[in-house]
């Protein structure tokens, strides 16, 4: 793979914002092994506080957090340190949110599950070319399942309304929702 990678340089500060504590710890440990000085935040409020007080050179921000939208952290970080490189992560890969993230100032956008290699490549890749394809893309079944889960959540977990919006039979939707997520 002939991907051009930026050098970390002097400032290796990295802010990780995610409300999934286990994922946050795993990613932090992996990023520390790659030479980053990691600070973790489990909420929008904590992420904004760090971005205001000690704006990092790099950031990885989850889109949907329990106390709000991760794009709020991206906005604060962009105001405080415009040159920072920011990757937005989400379990709900939608084109509209990807466009919103990039317009606000995110460098890249990755769908979960993203591993440390994907995140590192997104943070350090030069922006003048297309990024390489992911090493482990989501399966078509997983993408379908993620879309159904997203619409289900947007419909306040109302099965009948979700089925109507997805143009599928309610019982079929109930069977899909009862199963575990595909890989």
Automatic annotation (TrEMBL):
The keyword Ribonucleoprotein does not apply. The modification 4-aspartylphosphate is found at residue 62. It comes from the Bacteria. GO terms for biological process: phosphorelay signal transduction system. InterPro entries: ActR_PrrA_rreg, Bact_response_regulator, CheY-like_superfamily, Sig_transdc_resp-reg_receiver. GO terms for molecular function: DNA binding. Pfam families: Response_reg (PF00072). The keyword Transcription regulation applies. Residues 13-127 form the Response regulatory domain. Keywords: Activator, DNA-binding, Phosphoprotein, Transcription, Transcription regulation, Two-component regulatory system. Member of the two-component regulatory system RegB/RegA. Involved in transactivating anaerobic expression of the photosynthetic apparatus. It is a transcriptional regulator that is responsible for activating expression of the puf, puh, and puc operons in response to a decrease in oxygen tension. This is Photosynthetic apparatus regulatory protein RegA. The lineage of its organism: Bacteria, Pseudomonadati, Pseudomonadota, Alphaproteobacteria, Rhodobacterales.
